[in-house]
């Protein structure tokens, strides 16, 4: 790829197009080596999953009483990661937030691939995966139906709705940009974009329906974001298991999801802007604002940890208190303190405006947040299952190589899909960036004045 | 008398909207506009009623809620499971399903409504479309009688059009 030309002080619509379309030019061998590495790891994970299906769940570390562990941790983690995309594309759209235009496409793309990754884990977790459709209500020969009072059934509806709506919202936003790419492309890419653009030409009739539908879909997606992670939290909160049965779970999970999701957006965008040469489109101003969202949600999550501890102490239930004592000081206590350090202490550095715009520091902080949030899910899920009301059922858990490699494969799957997307379709929305060009110009001025 | 198309391009939506207002006031021919972004100025100038896609979303949402009620109530009656002596129909969990299906069908109706109302997918190109209209130019294509063509051209130029050409003179890009 040619060296990225610096876009002018006062960029025009054409400058935006050129910068974004240049990213979609054919990639070099390093890129394909990276894609090859990602999909090799996916192939290893897939082979291990096939072995697990063939020989049974005995190849995992899952034993009574810990029947939910890394797989469900990954499910909750990836659903959480997915939330920032819809936050940025729908909620911040309704609030008319100025900085969202540059980051929304990458965040939404992340949402699609994160939900696609999350959706795999309930299947991976099943002993008899070929019966996955038992959660769906279909007219079967014995009139057996799923129990709609079960949170697992709500979960199937919530996650599949979330994937569908996010994909439609994302596709709709992509159509005008693909039509734009179609005009500039040549060869097979021209044919590819012509098919995907579906004949979009930006007439007033098209924009009128598009704008209305976009607004309404943002309106529908906003409560959906809140509902999906609330439903995921109810998978736990509706059970009477100590450590799970908590009324704070829904808001706490939603805040945690946005926290981890926005942190993941930053983790992906910082290297991406450098590698793809789009520093002029994703400015320090954008990262400053994203970092503020991370800081705010970190404070909410910290507050939730404190409230959870307080409620356990104040309620006086000895079993619940024992579970929390184990969580803090038991054999896996170190995980809890890693989680607190990563999610509550380290993000406090973001109070400093200088750290918020220091790309290296911000990247490291967000990686810590990702680690902390994964541990949070693990501590809640596996940690709470090790000890319940009956000491005869207490047990322990140790992840197996199969589980670890399938987890690694899920990260490779997500990163591989995201990397493929970033070179073949517009990773920054040209249309939205043009709509908010005034703000891009202001951001560039701020950046360059600071640099000078 | 034959109808001809006059294609004009503008550097910004303000001038484009102004030209549309003048064309509407003068009532010369019918016109179509192209723009790289959704522009409220152009939308107001054209003055078309609000998109009916909102009704489709509403119909989708209501269909979703009704489907949710039908499957939760219907399947519960079909497979009567007494859980701890609780009532057979427990409404709070059913609301979750109804809500999810409302969003799902509302969104699907909205998405396919946009495609249907916008006339996509299509393989046909709208008359006067130019690749620049997807990039950085705002376009108006006026279809009028030959007798009105000169007047339309001068109106477009006066409104600030950068380029005004008749369809047969336009260079394909």
Strand and helix layout:
The complex is a heterodimer of chains A (452) and B (173).
Chain A: H1 13-23, H2 29-55, H3 70-94, H4 100-118, H5 120-125, H6 151-184, H7 187-197, H8 204-237, H9 249-275, H10 284-315, H11 318-329, H12 333-345, H13 353-356, H14 359-385, H15 401-424, H16 430-435, H17 437-451
Helix pairs in contact in A: 2-15, 3-4, 3-8, 3-9, 3-14, 4-6, 4-15, 6-7, 6-8, 8-9, 9-10, 9-14, 11-12, 12-14
Chain B: E1 3-10, H1 13-26, E2 30-34, H2 40-46, H3 53-78, H4 91-118, E3 138-145, H5 146-158, E4 163-166
Antiparallel strand pairs in B: 1-3, 1-4, 2-3
Return the string of H and E elements of chain B.
EHEHHHEHE
Radius of gyration of chain A: 23 Å
State the helix count of chain A.
Answer: 17
- Find the count of extended strands of chain A (DSSP E, 2+ residues): 0
Low-confidence stretches of chain B: none
Using the alpha-carbon principal axes, give the shape of chain B: rod-shaped
Strand content of chain B: 5-15%
Strand order in space, largest sheet of chain B: 2-3-1-4
The rounded distance between the terminal residues' Cα atoms of chain A is 28 Å
Category by helix and strand content of chain A: mainly alpha
Task: Please work out how many helical segments of chain B DSSP would assign.
Answer: 5
Mean pLDDT figure of chain B: 88
Mean pLDDT of chain A: 92
What is the helical fraction of chain A, as a range of percent?
over 70%
How would you concisely characterize the structure shown here?
By secondary structure, chain A is mainly α. Chain A has helices at 13-23, 29-55, 70-94, 100-118, 120-125, 151-184, 187-197, 204-237, 249-275, 284-315, 318-329, 333-345, 353-356, 359-385, 401-424, 430-435, 437-451. In chain A, helix 3 packs antiparallel against helix 8 and helix 8 packs across helix 9 (249-275).
């Amino acid at each position: 790829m040619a060296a990225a030309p610096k876009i002018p002080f006062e960029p025009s619509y054409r400058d935006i197009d050129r910068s974004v379309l240049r990213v979609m030019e054919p990639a070099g061998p390093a890129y394909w080596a990276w894609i090859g590495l990602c999909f090799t790891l996916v192939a290893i994970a897939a082979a291990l999953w096939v072995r697990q299906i063939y020989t049974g769940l005995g190849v995992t570390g899952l034993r009574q009483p810990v029947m939910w562990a890394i797989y469900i941790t990954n499910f909750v983690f990836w659903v959480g990661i997915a939330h920032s995309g819809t936050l940025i594309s729908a909620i911040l759209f309704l609030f008319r937030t100025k900085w969202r235009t540059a980051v929304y496409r990458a965040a939404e793309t992340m949402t699609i691939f994160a939900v696609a990754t999350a959706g795999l884990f309930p299947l991976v977790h099943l002993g008899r995966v070929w019966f996955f459709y038992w959660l769906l209500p279909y007219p079967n020969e014995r009139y057996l139906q799923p129990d709609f009072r079960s949170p697992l059934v709500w979960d199937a509806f919530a996650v599949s709705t979330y994937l569908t709506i996010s994909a439609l919202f994302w596709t709709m936003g992509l159509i005008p940009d693909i039509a734009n790419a179609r005009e500039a492309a040549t060869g097979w890419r021209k044919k590819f974009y012509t098919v995907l653009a579906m004949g979009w030409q930006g007439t007033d009739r098209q924009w009128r329906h598009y704008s209305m539908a976009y607004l309404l879909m943002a309106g529908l997606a906003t409560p959906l974001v809140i509902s999906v992670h609330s439903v995921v939290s109810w998978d736990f909160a509706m059970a009477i298991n100590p450590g799970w049965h908590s009324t704070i779970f829904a808001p706490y999970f939603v805040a945690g999801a946005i926290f981890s999701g926005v942190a993941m957006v930053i983790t992906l965008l910082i290297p991406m802007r450098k590698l793809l040469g789009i520093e002029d489109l994703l400015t320090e101003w954008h990262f400053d604002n994203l970092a503020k969202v991370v800081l705010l949600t970190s404070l909410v999550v910290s507050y939730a940890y404190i409230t959870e501890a307080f409620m356990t102490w104040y309620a006086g239930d000895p079993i619940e208190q024992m579970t929390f004592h184990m969580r803090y000081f038991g054999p896996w206590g170190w995980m809890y303190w890693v989680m607190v350090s990563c999610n509550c202490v380290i993000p406090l550095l973001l109070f400093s405006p200088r750290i918020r715009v220091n790309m290296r520091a911000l990247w490291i902080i967000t990686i810590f947040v990702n680690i902390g949030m994964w541990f949070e899910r693990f501590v809640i899920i596996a940690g709470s299952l090790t000890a319940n009301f009956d000491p005869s059922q207490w047990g322990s858990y140790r992840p197996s190589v199969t589980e670890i490699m399938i987890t690694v494969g899920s990260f490779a799957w997500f990163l591989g899909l995201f990397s493929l997307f970033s070179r073949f379709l517009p990773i920054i929305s040209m249309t939205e960036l043009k709509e908010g060009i005034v703000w891009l110009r202001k951001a560039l001025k701020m950046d360059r004045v600071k640099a000078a | 008398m034959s109808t001809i198309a006059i294609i004009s391009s503008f550097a910004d939506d303000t001038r484009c909207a102004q030209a549309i207002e003048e064309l509407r006031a003068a009532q010369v021919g019918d016109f179509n506009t192209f723009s790289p972004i959704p522009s409220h100025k152009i939308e107001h100038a054209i003055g078309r009623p609000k998109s009916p896609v909102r009704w489709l979303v509403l119909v989708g949402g209501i269909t979703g809620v009704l489907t949710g009620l039908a499957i939760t109530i219907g399947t519960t009656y079909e497979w009567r499971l007494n859980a701890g002596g609780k009532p057979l129909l427990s409404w709070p969990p059913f609301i979750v399903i109804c809500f999810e299906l409302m969003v799902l069908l509302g969104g699907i109706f909205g998405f396919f409504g946009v495609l249907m109302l916008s006339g996509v997918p299509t393989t046909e190109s709208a008359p006067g479309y130019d690749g620049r209209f997807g990039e950085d130019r705002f376009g108006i294509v006026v279809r009028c009688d030959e007798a009105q063509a000169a007047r339309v051209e001068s109106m477009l130029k006066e409104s600030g059009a950068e380029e005004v050409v008749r369809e047969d003179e336009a260079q394909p890009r």
